[in-house]
Amino acid sequence: MLDTKPLLLETTFPAISRQQVDTLQVNLGYLCNLSCTHCHVNAGPRRTELMDKDTIEDVLSYIKAHNIRTLDLTGGAPEMNPHFRDLVVAARALGVAVIDRCNLTILLEPGYEDLGEFLAEHQVVISASLPCYTEQNVAEQRGKGVFERSIEALQCLNKLGYGIEPELVIDLAYNPNGAFLPPNQVTLEAEYKRILQADHGIVFNRLLTITNMPISRFGSMLLSKKIYNEYMDLLKANFSDDNLASVMCKTLLSIDWQGYVYDCDFNQMLAMPLSHQSRSQIATDRQRWRLRDLLDADLCNTPIAIGEHCYGCTAGQGSSCGGALG
Fold first, then answer.
1. Whole-model pTM above 0.90?
2. Who's near 34: CB < 8 A, 6+ residues apart?
């Protein structure tokens, strides 16, 4: 697979610094029942990387030490980690909001038939990937049959009260099916709601539009089709300074399956570690911090590692794991 990282390290992106951390985004491993073309972690059924129990305990220790309010669980399919349910139960007992980045189809896999009931019982917020409301576009990104299974899973979640009961929140996530920016989030959300309700009787809370990052599988596709420079020009031409104040890395830490800490999920995939000392050390590999090393560290006002890919978060209406910024 072609690698865009060498093209991303030298950047003109503005320097930014961290504010108070309130969210841990934890990658529980790269094992997944799908292999999506837009997946920036290269997850799939043959991946073996999974967070172990000791690192799970480090996550809980950090939550307690730093009054973290949101635990954002991702993967792969985070639910395939054998410690997923124990972590959810422990975090909810601490009063922490838990987000499950769910691909929907996992709910229908053998051995996961009661997953929906578990998520509802613990009032886990579901952020579900559904890159389009049409079968063809979803099949192109995620594989044949995924759309139908996703619709079935959404209908099951609606029956449990998701999208209906105020304490059971389900958001859908949209990724462009190509080298272009997402459309307006508000407009597209209305279209999603209208079509999914009319065609399948499905309701949900919000639509999150997320820009494709020029890394991993998507970055490799850009290089192979010789449109990498064109896509980067698009991101830079649509840069909005207003989005700098609310990029997710300012209040979030990203944790990989081994417990190493990064400024965001994209930096994690690029192996660009967090630095809580000086900006000159950001681009080096001399020190990688595990979460257990930072239990007593104050990360406020520390520099955030940046690269050309950061333009993906600030282009147009902006992009984050919580959807558009503007």
1. yes
2. 43, 44, 45, 77, 103, 105, 142, 143, 146
